[in-house]
Specification:
Layout lengths: L14 E11 L4 E10 L4 E9 L4 E9 L6 E2 L2 E7 L3 E12 L7 E12 L4 E2 L6 H6 L6 E15 L2 E17 L7 E10 L2 E10 L2 E10 L2 E14 L5 E10 L4 E17 L5 E14 L2 E14 L2
Antiparallel strand pairs: 1-2, 1-11, 2-3, 3-4, 4-7, 5-6, 6-7, 7-8, 8-10, 9-10, 10-11, 12-13, 12-19, 13-14, 14-15, 15-16, 16-17, 17-18, 18-19
Length: about 300
């Protein structure tokens, strides 16, 4: 079955189909993440695309009406080259500078390709029954995959050649950013044969754990994730330790520290809840090996 297609929505206004890509190029000490969300029942697309290099951090968030179901909006475009294996990601346009006081906007051009290193992983291998019902407010259908990202980034009159490891996900269903009390979504790539993906969703009814630990060609489904996070005074994650239990009963211990952080706010429609998504770059340590990837924390704050 080809999961890399656009799916028929139900009648829920917040039904959403999402495509996300990220990578870290260690040689260039640069990471990027991008997401395109389609909300057909609201005739709307949304996107964000952020880049962090040693010299500058810049990004764009935008919304636009859906005039067709194509994978393109506000300068960001995805092209499927081979189902469940290869994707092309491009962006051309301006980005708002986050890290520099002397520049407000810069022109950016991305030309990247994602090549898969494992099969698409279905979260239903981890989440069934009552826990499936608990996760329905944050996209009930969810697939993950890690791979190699190559290409180039052009900005500030320079070209950055990219070659790094990264992650992509494809999800669909109702997506309410302010529904969970908190979610943690972690990706880490140690090599082409060793990687992890972890999700912990915290809702009023309880917690849902999912993901995989990939070792030498095999995805081991994660059914339990104990995550102990150290937060800074500003509420941002600084480091965390994990005990990950797979479906075969094996427990793996992983330590991580946050290296960089980009914050994205999400306000609820009634203006009473502000959720902040920390899209951090983390360095992982497992069995003496170092890995890197996105550690995403969505933290909800009620406003009086």
């Amino acid at each position: 079955m080809d999961t890399d297609v656009l799916h028929e929505p139900n009648s829920e206004p917040e039904w959403n189909e999402s495509f996300y890509f990220s990578f870290y190029d260690k040689d260039n000490d640069s990471y990027a993440f991008m997401r395109m969300g389609l909300r057909p029942n609201k005739k709307e697309k949304n996107m964000f695309c952020y880049i962090s290099t040693p010299h500058i951090v810049a990004g764009k968030r935008a919304y636009g009406h859906i005039y067709h179901n194509g994978m393109e909006t506000n300068g960001l475009k995805y092209e499927k080259l081979e189902a469940e294996k290869r994707w092309k990601m491009t962006y051309e346009g301006d980005m708002k500078v986050v890290s520099c006081k002397t520049l407000e906007y810069i022109d950016v051009k991305l030309d990247l390709e994602f090549n898969a290193l494992n099969d698409m992983f279905d979260y239903r291998k981890c989440v069934t029954g009552p826990k499936e019902m608990m996760s329905r407010s944050v996209a009930s259908e969810h697939y993950e995959q890690f791979g190699r990202v190559t290409g180039k980034i052009e900005m500030l009159e320079k070209t950055l050649e990219i070659d790094g490891l990264g992650e992509r996900d494809h999800s669909w269903g109702v997506r309410d950013w302010n529904a969970p009390r908190m979610w943690i979504w972690l990706t880490g790539q140690f090599s082409e044969k060793l990687a992890l993906n972890v999700t912990k969703l915290i809702v009023d009814e309880g917690e849902v754990d999912a993901g995989f630990f990939h070792v030498d060609g095999t995805d081991h489904p994660i059914i339990g994730a104990n995550i102990d996070t150290v937060f800074g005074d500003d509420g941002a994650p600084e480091s965390f330790t994990m005990e990950l239990t797979d479906a075969e009963g094996r427990v793996r211990s992983v330590d991580a520290k946050v290296i960089k952080n980009i914050k994205l706010p999400f306000m609820s429609e009634d203006k009473k809840t502000l959720s902040v998504m920390h899209e951090t770059l983390a360095e992982y340590t497992y069995d003496g090996k170092k890995g890197y990837g996105i550690a995403e924390y969505l933290i909800k704050n009620k406003r009086e």
